[in-house]
Design a protein that fits this description.
Blueprint (H helix, E strand, L loop, with lengths): L6 H29 L35
């Protein structure tokens, strides 16, 4: 527990941890750049911004109502 009170020992450990962490981030970025490939999407005939599922489209226009006679 006394090592935590020594700023030199704490700074050396922090520097080592920062170098290891930054090295892992660089390695992860390189692996992602090499390993992740997006396949080209198929062209869509219709694009629906609010439909995450395949299915019939919602009708946004409602038919006009006839006025009630009382």
């Amino acid at each position: 527990g006394a090592v935590y009170r020594d700023p030199v020992a704490f700074a050396d450990g922090f520097r080592t941890a920062a170098l290891i962490g930054s090295g892992m981030l660089v390695l992860g970025g390189l692996l992602s750049a090499v390993g992740i490939r997006n396949s080209p999407d198929e062209p869509e005939t219709e694009h629906c911004y609010s439909c995450p599922l395949d299915g019939p489209h919602l009708e946004t226009v409602q038919p006009a109502r006839t006025p009630r006679t009382t």
